[in-house]
Amino acid sequence: MRTNEAYVEIKGIPFFNTTHYELLTQHLYPALKEQRNIFLVTANPEIVMEAERDLEYSNILREADYVIADGIGVVIGSKLMKKPLPERIAGFDVMEDLLKKANRDQLRCYFLGAKEAVLYEAVNQIKQKFPKLIVAGQHHGYFDLKDANVVNNVKEAEPDIVFVGLGFPNQEKWIHQFRNEFSHGLFMGVGGSFDGWAGHVKRAPEFWRKLNVEWLYRLIKQPSRWKRMLQLPRFIWHILLKK
Fold first, then answer.
1. Bridge partners for 110 per DSSP
2. Contact 46, 72 (CB under 8 A)
3. Pairing, β 7-10 against β 134-139
């Protein structure tokens, strides 16, 4: 049951009111131990604005087990609403901690998304860094979202964690459509994280991340992202209008 204290609703999306540490130790790790079926969404302002445009997507996000604030804009928005979320929880960092957990406990991980060559490089790097986790399977992200063969391939792998890098809204729509066909598993949309693991996109240095300006670093490195970045001021403006 969702309580007012546990969630902060921003433009209809219930963000889980927690810290990175609490999310992992009090929720995700126990869910893995108990072999529950969990759907985790890492949402930034772009995702919130897309959900406002797409009612189906909005409903999917509302039905997820956890929606976390992967974007400093969401945290700023919560403060403007006088319902502050404690911190930004970066999806890449959560993914890395889940990989560490999988390495410690020898959990089975499935990797779905990105171009085939990129995914191959990403999984190679992950396997080198976390040699004890089990790569249960992998599949590139260029397929029909309703392709039963892909779903069956993932199911046959019997994964404990499924990292889905199809970009929003496709990754959340895929997880929502098929998660109930699995007896257990932690399903997480990871956006372009496979590109990061493959070394094709570099994360901002820690100094930038601590200042919560990773978005600016990425914009400097990838100027083509400027149109996407326009969603941030639009998001903040919408929050201000509805204060």
1. 137, 162
2. no
3. unpaired
Contact 71, 88 (CB under 8 A): yes
CA-wise closest residue to 81 among 239, 236, 187, 229: 239
- The answer, yes or no, to whether the previous bond of 169 is cis (omega within 30 of 0) is yes
Nearest CA to 229 among 57, 14, 13, 44?
44
Distance CA 159, CA 185 (A): 6
SS3 label, residue 85: coil
Measured distance CA(73)–CA(212) in Å, rounded: 9
Q: Interior CA angle at 120 toward 165 and 92, to 5°?
A: 40
C-alpha distances in Å from residue 27, one per residue of 21, 33, 62, 91, 142: 10, 10, 18, 15, 32
If pLDDT is split at 50, 70 and 90, which confidence band does 5 have? Answer: confident
**How far apart are alpha carbons 41 and 68 in whole angstroms?**
6
Whether 177 has a pLDDT exceeding 90, the answer reads: yes
For residues 217 and 94, the model is more confident at 94
DSSP state of 159: -
E strand intervals along the chain: 7-10, 13-16, 37-43, 66-69, 108-113, 134-139, 161-165, 185-189
Q: At what angle do helices 45-53 and 72-80 cross, to 10 degrees?
A: 70
Specify the 3-state DSSP secondary structure of 128. Answer: helix
The sign of the CA dihedral 168, 195, 183, 9 is: negative
Please state the length of the chain.
Answer: 243
